[in-house]
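Lesson 9: reading folded outputs for more than one chain in a single document. The general rule is that every protein is listed as its sequence immediately followed by its structure tokens, and records are never interleaved. Here is the first one.
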Amino acid sequence: MDNKKYLLGQYEKSMPNTCTWEEKLLLCKELGFDWLEMSVDETDDKLARLDWNDSEVDSLRNLMTKTGVPIYTMCLSGHRKYPLGSLDDETIKKSLDIMEKAVNLASRLGIRIIQLAGYDVYYSKGNDETKKRFVKNLALATEMASKKGVLLGFETMETSFMDTVEKSMEYVNLINSPYLHVYPDMGNLTNASLLYNCDVIEDIKKGEGHLIAAHLKETIPGHYREIEFGTGHTDFINVIQCCKELGVRMFVGEFWYVGQDNWEQDCINANKFLREKLDRVFND
């Protein structure tokens, strides 16, 4: 029986794109992470993964077996460019195509959870119509996932459309499917708590029964990315404690490679920082 009390995944974007899959998986293992979270963002090279043939899928599956490092989760942010709530029908078509292919790839690779970006639209202004379209296409996306047994979880974002667990739950309840839940970003929630003068912990609790994993990320007021762990205001101990009480056992350290020479050391530091917080909570 596996005696680990929690699992900590590594965000793929914490490593350079030039690394091969084998290098990424081996490094993930070397650093002591439990799995790698695959990124499918809006760039052409990441979206191209959705069109992998059987040979390419088999190659990655074999590497996971060889290295002993699974890919349990996928961060699907490609919908930022092709959003589910777009007013353009061609964009909607592309959006649903991305969703279907992402679900199929997840199924083929053994990925359990796809983290969905909580945007109706991103590069344009939302309105009642974009929200309506988002709901309609979210229902279709959830149906796709249900056919493959893949869970979808909303990431709480940096825009007002879905920057809290409470807002995410509006759509979870609306769709009312066992395949749609919340996969929140603790750093984004921390910033949202300042915007709305609300309590992070109370917001997290509103997802009770629907939190399937959590991103652990550092933020500072008004800034959502590339903040070094330990230099921001995310209260890791208390958010992890709350997640633990609500049954969450899968966490991902979200941080980025942005061209720095010492990126491997950054990965080591992130692992050490997050493990220390997680161990304190789970061994208490």
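And here is the second record, again sequence then tokens.
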Amino acid sequence: MLPGQIRQLRVLAAAGHLAQAQAVTANTRVRMHDMALRAIAAEVGGVMRVADRTVQRRIDDALVIIDGYPAAVAAWEAGRIVRGHVQAIVEAGNAVPFELRGEFEALAIVRCEQDTPNRVRAELQILAQRMHPRSFAERHEDAAAGRCVRVIPGQDGMSDLIATLPTVIAEGIHDRLTQQARAIIDTRPERTTPNDDVAASDARSTDQVRADVLADLLLAGTPALDDTRDTTAGPLGAIRARVQILVPAATLTGADDGPCDLVGRSPIDPNTARRLAGDTRIWERLFHDPVTKVTTAVDSYRVPAGMRRFLQARDQHCRFPGCRVPAIRCEIDHTHDHALGGRTETCNLAHLCQRHHSMKQFTRWRVRQLSGGVLEWTSPAGRTYREDAPTPAVAFTPATPQAAPGTHEPPPASDPAPF
């Protein structure tokens, strides 16, 4: 399947090159190129039984990938990365000036070889923004001048209302609408009295409720239907937006003017991040290993996702001697109790199943964590049990080349696969 996908991409790019060649001899190059591309797209579409407009879009995409990111295509063809990685590289690389694209592509491929497309996408976007010769703050200021609201008429009496806003504002709006929609939907099963006929008959989806609340807020300033009488949800108007932003310390102090990461979304400008940082009362410092980039410690009790993944890979199962309950079914325990000063860091965390977690808390079994994730358990009778960190389930080491049959020379050595 993989060779077929790349072959189709190359064929579509070749069709685009043919259209460019046909337009070179024409005086009205732009128009003739478009006409040539339309004709070729119609020809290819007839063979593939696909609309010519669709084929033309695919040709444009193929030209961008094949001509603009040849190293990424080669890495995909060699099996080092997958199609999702290539797409992430192309999307992020659009922000990089052409003369720097090769350097960006090389760095992006190395990063893609280490993780899945979804996990590297945000990092590639930050990398692309940092490689741009103009600071992200300057470019954001120019882009923000183009903020606007527009209406695009649709069919059947519907239209699209589109607001182009700074990312953090747009995300905040969407988050608040989502919270309000969930608050409305969560109250439905509790409405059983005769006065709750409207709420009981409400079968709108989350998207529909979100759109209705947006219209109510813009037209009247308050939701038309606020039936969230549950004390945990509160009135809809009291719900406020939430955004999660990763701000490097250098950016926070003004020493760096690069982009900040709106977690799970896209980069935002540093000035907005600093302003939000000054207004917030909730802080969580993250300490990263400079080599592996794994989060090794945080200030809060909560264990962040990156650290959780590392601990699952390290522990594999419950760390009580002899227990093999998988880590994904265990709880992450602070070896030295957080309430007694224990820090949320990898050298003070380990997976314990519910049974042994409770036993650690409510019996005289004691444990301390040594270097390398080794746990030393002491029983009520004073016996000591050492629970070493499990050997990784998968490890790659370079194999010693052996002579090929019938020859005296070893076969070509292959690079070890990334862990």
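What the second record shows: The chain is about 45% helix and 10% strand.
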